[in-house]
Amino acid sequence: MDARLVDLRSAKNPKARIKVMKGHFATSNSHLNTYIDMSTVKTRHNNAREAAKELAHEYLSTTYVDSIVCLDETSVIGTFMAEQLSDAHRMSLSAGNNISVITPEFNTMGQIMFRDNQQRMVKDQQVLILAASITTGKTLNRAIESVLYYGGTICGVAAIFSAVSKVAGMEIKTIFTSRDLPDYRACDPADCPICAEGKHVEAIVNSYGYSKL
């Protein structure tokens, strides 16, 4: 792993941590000057559990949740969130509920879809969408449109990091924001200031990680 990666820990809970690295990176939608690595918080169960506690806290007393739709390989965090929200010993609107934790697919057109066996977990359900990182909100918009298409109701949007505070009128509950990364920049590839300086993209990044060019 690149030695430039440095830890960024949540002020609320240091175990909910991510890693960041400065550079020139490209996603499918934009160019970034900072790569955010979510490997630890998405895969190590202790870190995932602590992140889930922080995110679930936002919904305990305010939101009834039937299903959590997990984007960006966040199903471990989503499962811990469901456990927190459904805990019968807590003052939660979802206490005792058997919350579904599901991951959608992307078809060849880039649309988000749910297989027939998962559609019952969306239709007529209160759905919380969980993402790892929200940069421009384009992928989240597609997720929202998909849930609505399959007959679900969006009851919340949560993310580990989000560069925006709202998407499609929905407030995003998050652990890390642009305030934690004041130098973070995302821009259209055609208007990228780093490209204008003649610096090449060093890696392609997505929810799976990054690949050096």
Describe the structure.
- By secondary structure, the chain is α/β, with parallel strands linked by helices.
- The protein has one domain (6-212): Rossmann fold, CATH 3.40.50.2020.
- The chain contains 6 helices and 14 strands.
- It has helices at 39-43, 45-57, 75-86, 116-119, 138-149, 193-196; strands at residues 6-9, 17-26, 31-37, 67-70, 100-102, 105-106, 112-113, 126-134, 153-162, 166-167, 170-177, 186-187, 203-206, 209-212.
- Strands 1, 2, 3, 12, 13 and 14 form a 6-stranded mixed β-sheet that branches. The protein has a 6-stranded mixed β-sheet with strand order 5-4-8-9-11-10, with helices on both faces.
- Strand 4 (67-70), helix 3 (75-86) and strand 5 (100-102) form a beta-alpha-beta unit.
- Helix 2 (45-57) packs across helix 3.
- It starts with 5 loop residues before the first strand and ends with a strand.
- The model has no long low-confidence stretch (mean pLDDT 92).
Topology summary:
Blueprint: E1 6-9, E2 17-26, E3 31-37, H1 39-43, H2 45-57, E4 67-70, H3 75-86, E5 100-102, E6 105-106, E7 112-113, H4 116-119, E8 126-134, H5 138-149, E9 153-162, E10 166-167, E11 170-177, E12 186-187, H6 193-196, E13 203-206, E14 209-212
Parallel strand pairs: 2-13, 4-5, 4-8, 8-9, 9-11
Antiparallel strand pairs: 1-2, 2-3, 3-12, 6-7, 10-11, 13-14
